Amino acid sequence: MTNQYPLWKNLLILCVVIVGALYALPNLYGNDPSLQISPNRDTAVLDKQTETRIADLLANKGIAYKNIETMKQGVLVRFNDVNAQLTAKDLVSDDLGDGYTVALNLYPAAPAWLTALNAAPMYLGLDLRGGVHFLMEVDMNAAMRQSDDRYVGELRTLLRSNKVRYLTIARHKSGGVDVKFRDNTERAKALLLIGKELPRLVREEEDRNNAFYLRVTLSEQEARETKEFALQQNITTLRNRVNELGVAEPIIQRQGLDRIIVQLPGIQDTARAKDILGATATLEYRMADSEHDVEQALQGRVPAGSRLYYERNGSPILLKKDIIITGANIVDAASGIDQQSGSPMVHVTLDSKGAKKMARNTRENVGKPMAVVFIENKVETRKVNGELVKTSRKIEEVISVANIREEFSKRFQTTGLDSFEEARDLALLLRAGALSTPIEIVEERTVGPSLGQDNIDMGFRSVVIGFIFVLLFMAVWYRVFGLVANIALALNLVLLVAVLSMLQATLTLPGIAGIVLTVGMAVDANVLIFERIREEIRNGNTPQASIAAGYDKAFSTIADANITTLIAALVLYGFGTGPIKGFAITLSIGILCSMFTAIVGTRAIINLVYGGRKLEKLAI
Amino acid sequence: MQLFSSKTNIDFLGKRRIAMVISLLLIAISVVSFFTRGLNLGIDFTGGTIIEVGYQQPVELGGVREVLKESGYGDAIIQHFGTAKDVLIRIPPREGVASAELSSSVLKGLHRANPDGVEMRRVEFVGPQVGDELTEDGGLAVLWALFGILIYVAFRFEWRFAVGSVAALIHDVIITMGIFSLFQLEFDLSVLAAILAVIGYSLNDTIVVFDRIRENFRKMRKGTPTVITNTALNQMLSRTLITSMTTLLVLLALFFLGGAVIHGFSTALIIGIVVGTYSSIYIASTTVLALGVSKADMMPMQVKKEGQDLDSIP
């Protein structure tokens, strides 16, 4: 019989429709603004008690919430609106203190039975939910310089301890270390020694200006490893810092050889995020110089052995030039509450080398003030006459001055801080001091929460209006066939959303544009088929034969047209970054879904409507 | 409803000279505009900072400009964005400063002048090195897309068709970009994406017509290549127009309702689709004919081998 699908084919289509509808469904429920509270240290526990504590706190302050529950990752509180969520965040994080991370999150509002099926709504991109996107570049030149500096020290120790006599040893301008010798014999000794002890270094003899030089450089492989290490170290540190910022689903991943992508959905205070992520830093602990007068130093009479610094609030302070320890000696720093006074404080833990130095210093200086100098290395890339030039700037600032109460070494506390906020920031800065290679933000895209919601609303509205236009148009134009095409179009939209949800693809504004475009173009296949059917009818064929011929003949055209569009979409995906990728993904999946719904889907319905009976004419 | 009650028979190709003149004129204008006015490149390509802020009340740009001048951003370009309450601030990459902290300091300044009435809506900062790379990658992407399509069409059809479709695409891309240059519309990353989508769309249109030309070459016993091609254009006319129509409908929805951020994107697509529809009728087929396609080229494989030698004689 003509134009009838076998039962299995109809069932299969029905199956696809049901599964599609099921997985698209969570998107209708949307997301609840919520708080995710999790412990960030082993000492902090999370149990039913924490849940009750938070519930009581919110009830006391009169903040309405939808639901509170303890899950594997922590306590989850859902709210009805963003305002309640934001107010609650501040309250809860103040109440729980530093041991917990309180993160803003969007949590699927779908009912439990859908969640049990692993059906979740599409993940909203930063332009829809608000948040920050950073692209950061690790300064590899600085990484190489630091590695050369390390080798300068290492070579000096090596040569000295083996009694090889050299004149000077220094980092070469264009990379590597230059060692200068008085004569060839010493150089030959050094060459042999370095070859034995540091075999991975490349050694070159050079005679310049009547002097004997030995140029030592990193081998290609080692240079690569050094860079790789610098990148990985930065990723690790960034990850730690991001955790401190309280972000529910941060993305930190490498891009290429020297770049890192950081995405922080839902972050409100971008300036703070940038402060914490953007600069790398080192620290120096120094004794304050309390014997001399700061006023005199301000007038230019800085005593020998001291240097003039400024505190965060701008007030000047004299510090001794001798460095007690540096950031490299710090193992951990954390903020907390002093058990006796209840005031905020910061714990610091040092490594054994640092502990020894600290013990020696504090023993001699009990009662005197000690300061922490925070040194930020900011790298900037500027364009000078069309050339890209990198400059680094050093910003030194005293972040803490405290009296030494007693002798200490490995562990100590800094107290006398004004607020918990200050304690938290100091701890963060101290930890940041452990990081070394400078890193620079080369791209930033921040979307405020209100714009995110506007984007969702506007995107949704344009999909709906565009969709209705096309539906009306098709129904008027092709009558019954138009209605069938409309069902297919709706199905296409459901399938597209279902596939995107299953893949947990990120939906962005360009992604929505891709969906809108798909709606417009998806009917193309049906237009091709229907025009072909009309043509067959005009050529005097019977209605049934026209339907069959229309579908058959239009198929290769549809396939060709869609594959070429798919090529363009794939290129777009391959080259595109973030948002553009989203557009390419929705466009590609839309094309594939539309081929299924427009060809197989409409045929099934047409067959059910017209198939297997005698027809005089078609409503097309 | 039908667009044309019976078979249409419009002599498209009879007017191909006029079309050619129009196209060449448009391309000439575009190219001249490129060289004289250039593209109004967005910060995605030039580097720089964009800050969008929203006020509670409609705001005068003069006041905002004053505040920025005080903060040391006298060179900022300030305009309303979408509504009178939203303001877009562009700060060009300057010699000397290219810092990511620029936006914080601008926002701080605005906030000080208007403590609770201003809200950050969007900040985009692109460093110069990223901008340079994007320009390069973007150009490469367009070339790759064209190359991939050339190969696929040559494989599925014939080399003349591949050249014809790519000629139509280049035509569309040049004119779309030309209009962006002529009216100094901002050309950013989303517009580039739209141009790639235009390539996909225009191609879709062209391929559908080619498919019919090929079919007609095989089916129609009589008629010169010109007549055969013209028949195909007429047969596909109502499809071409209807699909363009539905696509334009949704794009207009996107243009008017999608918000200011996506304006450039929808503008580029609307231009591209109008130009693409025109080029699939006039440019693609005309090029194929000009390259001297014949019935023999279009026969299925076995037959094609016999005719091939004849064809290679110019």
Walk me through what this model shows.
The complex is a heterodimer of chains A (620) and B (314). Chain A is α+β, with helices and mostly antiparallel strands and 620 residues long. Chain A has four domains: 183 residues, Multidrug efflux transporter AcrB transmembrane fold, CATH 1.20.1640; 79 residues, ACT domain (Alpha-Beta Plaits), CATH 3.30.70.260; 81 residues, Alpha-Beta Plaits, CATH 3.30.70; 168 residues, Gyrase A, domain 2 (2-Layer Sandwich). In chain A, 50% of the residues lie in helices and 26% in strands. Chain A has 17 helices and 22 strands. In chain A, the strands form six sheets. Chain A has a five-stranded antiparallel beta sheet with strand order 14-15-13-18-19. In chain A, strands 2-3-1-4 form a four-stranded antiparallel beta sheet. A four-stranded antiparallel beta sheet of chain A has the order 11-12-6-21. In chain A, a hairpin with a 6-residue loop joins strand 16 and strand 17. Chain A starts with 6 loop residues before the first helix and ends in a 10-residue tail after the last helix. In chain A, 44% of the residues are buried. Chain B has 314 residues and is α+β, with helices and mostly antiparallel strands. Chain B folds into two domains: 210 residues, Multidrug efflux transporter AcrB transmembrane domain (Multidrug efflux transporter AcrB transmembrane fold); 79 residues, 2-Layer Sandwich (Alpha-Beta Plaits). Helix content of chain B is 66%, strand content 11%. Chain B is built from eleven helices and six strands. In chain B, the strands form two sheets. In chain B, strands 3-4-2-5 form a four-stranded antiparallel beta sheet. A two-stranded parallel sheet of chain B has the order 1-6. In chain B, helix 5 runs antiparallel to helix 6, helix 5 runs parallel beside helix 7 and helix 6 runs antiparallel to helix 7. The longest helix of chain B has 33 residues. Strand 21 of chain A pairs antiparallel with strand 5 of chain B, so a sheet runs across the interface.
